[in-house]
Amino acid sequence: MEDDKSRLDRVIEAAGERVSRVGQDLVQSPVVTATRDRANAVAERAQKVALSQMQVATREDVARLQASLDRIEAALADLAKRVPAAEKPRPRSRPKPPAES
Prior knowledge:
Layout: H1 2-28, H2 30-53, H3 59-82
């Protein structure tokens, strides 16, 4: 039983070492490295294209909008000063209906 356990441990250890070596070989492989580099370059280009297609406001756009908003707020404040204070409107007089004879 102990012998079987130690064999199993040795097999597991050997398999782990083999997997590690294969991983090292893949990392050092020029084909894998070139493929990874190409994939990264394609991903970067795709990201740039996607960002260029988005309608993102620039700082200048935001500054122009802020200036327009400031002008509108100033114009509203000026109009509010010109309009007399809110008074209750006078009730309108209604014409009396003609008397029936």
